[in-house]
Amino acid sequence: MNIHEYQAKTLLAKYGVPVPRGGVAYSPDEAREVANTLPGPVYVVKSQIHAGGRGAGRFKNDPDGKGGVRVVKSIDEVGENAKAMLGQTLVTKQTGAVGKDVKRIYIEEGADIQRELYLALLVDRATSRVTIMASTEGGMEIEEVAAETPEKILQQAIDPVSGAMPFHARKIAFGLGLEGKQIGAFVKFLNSLYQAYVGLDASLVEVNPLIVTGDGQVLALDAKMTFDDNALFRQSEVVDMRDLDEEDPAEVEASKHELNYIKLDGNIGCMVNGAGLAMATMDIIKLYGSEPANFLDVGGGANKERVIAAFKIILQDAAVEGILVNIFGGIVRCDVIAEAVVAAAQEVELHVPLVVRLEGTNVERGKEILQDSGLKITAADNLADGAEKVVKAVQENA
């Protein structure tokens, strides 16, 4: 789950992470009201969307104009820029050409920026530990830094028993070239950031840029947070921050049925149980010359209602020209899945080729149910056979 910058800063501030003062606004008048509470004379007007690169982005109605983050020097300019941003579509590297509509903005006080750094906490799968990642190249995308100057990226794994210790922070601070009271400020900053990361069950906290001010303060000028969905049951404050307008409607609908769904750009819809099997299914579709239209894991506890919901979500995508169902019947028997597939195909009035591969408990009975249904369902003997058949059927219908 993702949240907006202003929400991330609100959460981080509760853990003692220093952030500039600011407030969210949904109209030009609200933007002026927020600006009146700030010291000025410099203000920053920031579009709030779930995507990076806002400052370098451009609005569809003004592609040659200013980006989604603007520095202004009066309250009148705050209102003018708020009016220019709200309700418009911002296109960045991360949104793609479609862009995202700006429905709220963040008004923040200006800062005396002396240096811009990069700092993040994330889970390193190689070490299975929370890891500090830092760089002197603040304000840049970390992927670019990793590709062009990887030696400028500092990393420090954290032992989960001890947690983040002062010596971890000092090591990073020295590597970033901090000095004097900046080091002490950084140690406090990183400790608070780590406490927020652990306390909020985050999967990523990224501060880019982390700034050093003229008087030696360390502030989070920007903040991005993502969270472990499996821990949201104990993070009610985070759940309340969810902005459904920023999410794909199909993915929102899928979450209501406990389905793991991600839309892709292909034409073969996939319905699979198990994330690993789903990945293998997408790979073999590509191997046979087509592209998957989605990742969809119905989970080990799939039932009739969930399978019907899955079919409806897949078919909402106009690009889908065929569906491959790949189920390994372990916890859920193959005959139960077959009955659900037949019911779903009848209810949604299936109009594209459907290939089903079943394996596991009661597989023969499951195949009988599919064969006796009277529906145009093609059975597959194995995964390769299923992929080949669905790709061929789509090509023949083209």
UniProtKB/TrEMBL annotation:
Q: Which residues are substrate-binding? A: 273, 330-332
Which cofactor names does the annotation list? Mg(2+)
Q: Where does ATP bind?
A: 46, 53-55, 108, 111, 116
Q: List its EC numbers.
A: 6.2.1.5
GO CC entries: cytosol; succinate-CoA ligase complex
Q: Which UniProt keywords apply?
A: ATP-binding, Ligase, Magnesium, Metal-binding, Nucleotide-binding, Tricarboxylic acid cycle
Per the record, the domain of life is Bacteria
Return the InterPro entries for the record: ATP-grasp, ATP-grasp_succ-CoA_synth-type, ATP_grasp_subdomain_1, SUCC_ACL_C, Succ_CoA_ligase-like_bsu, Succinyl-CoA_synth-like
Role: Succinyl-CoA synthetase functions in the citric acid cycle (TCA), coupling the hydrolysis of succinyl-CoA to the synthesis of either ATP or GTP and thus represents the only step of substrate-level phosphorylation in the TCA. The beta subunit provides nucleotide specificity of the enzyme and binds the substrate succinate, while the binding sites for coenzyme A and phosphate are found in the alpha subunit.
Subunit structure of this chain's protein? Heterotetramer of two alpha and two beta subunits.
Cite the NCBIfam families for this sequence: PRK00696.1 (NF001913), sucCoAbeta (TIGR01016)
Instruction: Return the similarity comment.
Output: Belongs to the succinate/malate CoA ligase beta subunit family.
Q: Output this protein's name.
A: Succinate--CoA ligase [ADP-forming] subunit beta
The organism named in the record is Rhodovibrio salinarum
Lineage per the UniProt record: Bacteria, Pseudomonadati, Pseudomonadota, Alphaproteobacteria, Rhodospirillales
